Automatic annotation (TrEMBL):
Gene Ontology MF terms in the entry: histidine-tRNA ligase activity
Keywords associated with the record: Aminoacyl-tRNA synthetase, Ligase
Source species taxonomy: Bacteria, Bacillati, Mycoplasmatota, Mycoplasmoidales, Mycoplasmoidaceae
EC number: 6.1.1.21
UniProt protein name: Histidyl-tRNA synthetase
Superkingdom field: Bacteria
Gene3D superfamilies tied to this protein: Bira Bifunctional Protein, Domain 2
Length: 65
């Protein structure tokens, strides 16, 4: 994946992004398990990275947005 950026000498523009999606009737424990799973993978391979967590919301909250 590439993001838009003004090219500068010595700057790398490529980065990697992975995602996990949960489908169906879920509760907060399902989300927690997914986050802990991702953290465990990152820790296992000693990746130097930042784990960003985002939420798309539900239909009502997206409608207000």
């Amino acid at each position: 994946m590439f993001r838009y950026e003004r090219p500068q000498k010595g700057r790398m523009r490529e980065f990697y992004q992975y995602g996990i999606e949960l489908v169906g009737e879920l509760d907060q424990l399902d989300y927690l398990q997914t986050i802990l799973f991702a953290k465990k993978i990152l820790d296992t391979f000693n990746f130097d990275c930042v784990l960003n967590i985002n939420w798309l919301g539900n239909f009502a909250s997206r409608k207000c947005w």
